[in-house]
Amino acid sequence: MRVPARIYATETLMHQMDEGVFNQVTNVAMLPGIVKHALCMPDGHWGYGFPIGGLAAMDPDTGVISPGGIGFDINCGMRLVRTNLTFDDVRDRIHDLVDGLYTRVPAGVGARGFLKLSDEQFRAIAVRGARWCVEQGYGWPEDLEHTEEGGSISGADPDRVSVRALERGRQQVGTLGSGNHYLEIQVVKPEHVFDARAAAAMGIDVPNQVVIMFHCGSRGFGHQIASDYIQSFLPLMQRQFGIQLPDRDLACAPFASAEGQAYFAAMKCGINMSFANRQVILHRVREVFGDVMGRDARELGMEMVYDVCHNTAKLEEHTVDGRRRRLLVHRKGATRAFAPGMPDIPRRYREIGQPVILGGSMETGSYLLRGVPSGQQAFFTTAHGSGRCMSRAQAKKQFHGKQLERDLAARGVYVRSVSYGGLAEEAGAAYKDIDAVVAATTTAGLSQPVARFTPIGNVKG
Question: How does pLDDT run across 35-93, given as a tens digit for each residue?
Fold first, then answer.
């Protein structure tokens, strides 16, 4: 190990982590050029290469870039949208809203979007991300102000992406995907607002306010980019770069090498496609709410709160041992959480800190948090969700999707899912206690809770 490994967790959460987490965070600490610590967030669980919830900052001159530290679903992330509606406004229309979302936002493995894009148009999306969408009328200019990186990270190069990846991505803009991806209608109960000042700054200021949250990423496009570069890095690691690691899943290349830079430019295409994907989904969400509620989306106050990533590698400046350094920060299943006053936070949130969206299961609810100064210890990073504590296979054996659907309906949550098997995989009991995860991030000084959201309707991939 070149640096220590650190896991943020309570004793209970630590016991819920599988052995793979401890092995993987130890292996991450062996990567060339790693700075300070290899880290894992309280929602950590086993992943490919890095644990999900893993974090590593690399010296860009001596360190590596690893697809396993970013994830196959590049820029998998969360988007939160406020409304001026209350629960009473939607109580009798929740079925219509969820059914409309299920119809207009394709979900599931292999789902295709409604946009019919040419190769040239999709390459433009890979470079311009959500900006391209807004220019084409799929969104509002202010959406970009409240998206990480302004909805478009610079330096993306489609020429570094395979033809196969481009073909897969071109058909999937505006789709939800499968697994733990979802589109959820939620309510903010007055007793679940913990920081009224920050909540008001984020537009959460109405008792029993309705919000929409969704979780998705770069779909097959990001998966193909990661797969392509992992296969290209594996034979080069020892032969060309002299890198020996205990786990092939940590396949990597020196960041400064031609190969490392090629992957970095391709990975940024995945980031931009994901921003575009969530932007088009937001456009469809606004359409559905406008149709069902009989009012324009602007009349309904359907403003974005924020869009945050949790599967990226980015060049950022951080203070390490009293010195400012430029670092390549890998966050896999971990969310950036910049503190008040830091650059790259929208002006609206500059005084309170960056919004953090922490998604939970469809049974338990989700959180809105904010970054805090003490987050510097973890390169201003926090958890991204509640984190699995049960494998998908085990969940499918233990739970039955149709019964789960009935149980949720009895508790006031209307769910539409592509498959009952997929629904069973996402049962609340397959995840850690989201309240415990948030409490751990708070106690550790990684982020501060602002509000908790209760689900009332869900579209599941």
Answer: 999 999 999 999 999 999 999 999 999 999 999 999 999 999 999 999 999 999 999 99
Cα 195 versus chain centre, distance: 23
Its pTM stands at 0.97
Rounded Cα gap, residues 132 and 137, in angstroms:
9
Give catalytic residue positions: 384
CB-CB contact of 12 with 436 (8 Å): yes
Rounded to the nearest 5°, which phi and psi values hold at 60?
-70, -20
Residue 143, exposed/middle/buried by CB under 10 A (0-12, 13-18, 19+)? buried
Distance of CA 305 to the CA centre of its chain: 15
Terminal CA-CA length for the chain: 39
- Ranges of beta strands (E only) in 321-460 are 323-332, 334-336, 355-358, 366-371, 381-383, 414-417, 447-460
CATH top-level class for 5-389+431-460? alpha beta
- Stated as kind and residue range, the H or E segment containing 35 is strand 34-45
